[in-house]
Design brief:
single chain, 457 residues, alpha/beta, 3 domains, five-stranded mixed beta sheet, 9% strand
């Protein structure tokens, strides 16, 4: 049964000579064929709210829409009712012509046409039991065909760095279609490479994996192993560093007329200072700056270690005394830079009775200062311009004091998880890669350390 598209002539309150013509489109009617009863109730609720807020114009529109909801719902129920009766007539042995003739006096002009009766008559003879319409597949896919998917896959095998615009010009497909094929059909995403200090050899990877296994074993033997670690490193800090682009983003209204903020590019300041920081779970133990016109050498680093020992004696007396074997309670961790591994440096460490936490070479993702402290410190200083190096030093010390102690603790407690990730990565770099860590199967003592330490406090 065909339905006429309704048109309403609604007078304009501001000008009695003008009026608005409101047309209810067929797409609006088709979109209302699902969940009709709940939709009708919702529309009636909207009617009351609209009438209270905006007056009678929108009220009349929603009233007509609700009426058509009821008409379409009743029409659909009549179709199902006629098909159910037709199903009974088919089982009674009636032909399509006889069934249509017997239904015509009952439903009058609302009776299905003879062609529709024949279609459903054939379906019921073939075993159809549901009088409702079959679900329709919708609009057929044209761009996401198997041929186009194979074309996109072949283009990627030629050049995996191809852009969407390049593949669109080459394959004569739209850019959104190629994007959909890449994401949904091929399950691909475009990733940028991660820059690392050096590509590790297989021997270096095996060595890195072995050291991580040794550190986890040391944790298993000594539940207080992490609380004994004092880690340190050096880094340059400039008087001015440009703020990161991510940190400069602002919340602005949507729309094409919204102007995007602009910011001038500024070079890093040539004035800078080299800072050396040693810290543990409780915070900073010792920090100092390299004198101007000096470089980090084995001699200067030995002087730093001597001042570190004095700082540990004053600030961490529980870690300064020696154990039964004659070694200091704290464990020193630093990277494998040349001044750190020089013979004079290792000799001073051995004479002082300090044990080292093994650290693999070229592994910033296993050095707490590299993956936590220095990025955290520099992110607070970026975008601020300091007049002198002394002002920079004051800001650095203030920022270090403002970092909560819990963040220092969490950084140290993350070392076991990073060691396990390195083992699962077979000694390779693991930052940006996802690994499933199961504490029950791997090293449960690693994860129990934090709880036992809190209980002891």
């Amino acid at each position: 049964m065909g339905l006429l598209r309704p048109q309403l002539i609604i007078p304009d309150r501001t000008n009695t000579a003008r009026s608005h013509r409101v047309t209810v489109s067929r797409s609006t009617l088709r979109s209302t064929r699902t969940s009709r009863r709940s939709t009708v109730c919702l529309n009636l609720l909207i009617l009351e709210m609209t009438f209270m807020e905006t007056g009678s114009c929108l009220f009349v529109f929603w009233l007509v829409l609700a009426c058509f909801e009821l008409v379409l719902m009743a029409s659909n129920e009549e179709k199902i009712e006629q098909r159910t009766i037709l199903k009974f007539l088919v089982k009674s042995g009636c032909t399509p012509k006889e069934s249509w003739t017997r239904m015509l006096p009952v439903f009058d002009d609302k009776t299905m046409c003879l062609k529709t009766v024949r279609i459903w008559h054939k379906r019921f003879l073939q075993g159809e039991t549901n009088p409702k319409d079959r679900p329709r597949p919708g609009r057929p896919r044209t761009a996401r065909s198997n041929d186009n998917i194979q074309k996109v896959q072949a283009a990627l095998q030629t050049d995996r760095r191809s852009t969407l615009d390049e593949m669109s010009d080459e394959l004569h497909l739209s850019r959104p279609s190629i994007h959909t094929i890449l994401k949904k059909d091929l399950n691909l995403s475009k990733l940028a490479p991660k820059f690392v200090p050096r590509l590790l050899t297989q021997e270096q990877k095996d060595f890195c994996k072995k050291l991580c296994e040794d550190n986890l074993q040391a944790m298993k033997d000594d539940p207080l192993f992490l609380s004994r670690i004092i880690t340190g490193d050096e880094s340059w800090i400039s008087v001015f560093e440009m703020e990161l682009k991510v940190k400069s983003r602002e919340w602005l209204p949507k729309g094409r007329h919204t102007l995007r903020p602009i910011k001038a590019i500024r070079n890093h300041s040539e004035k800078k200072a080299m800072i050396t920081i040693f810290w543990d779970m409780q915070g900073v133990v010792h920090s100092e700056y390299l004198a101007p016109n000096e470089t980090v050498s084995s001699d200067t680093y030995c002087d730093v270690l001597r001042r570190l020992k004095e700082a540990v004696r004053r600030k961490r007396p529980e870690l300064w005394h020696r154990d039964n074997e004659g070694y200091r309670e704290f464990r020193l961790q630093h990277d494998n830079a040349s001044p750190h591994t020089a013979c004079i440096t290792l000799g001073l460490i051995g004479e002082s009775g300090i044990l080292m936490v093994p650290h693999p070479p070229y592994s910033p993702d296993l050095a707490p200062s590299d993956f936590f402290l220095f990025p955290r410190l520099k992110s607070e200083l970026r975008g601020h311009r300091f007049r002198t190096v002394n002002d920079l030093k004051i800001a650095v010390q203030r920022t270090l004091r403002q970092i909560p102690q819990q963040e220092y603790r969490d950084a140290i407690l993350s070392l076991p998880v990073r060691w396990m990730k390195c083992i699962k990565a077979q000694g390779s770099y693991f930052e940006g890669r996802h690994f499933e860590i199961n504490p029950e199967e791997d090293h449960e003592l690693v994860f129990e350390y934090g709880n036992s330490d809190d209980d002891s406090d």
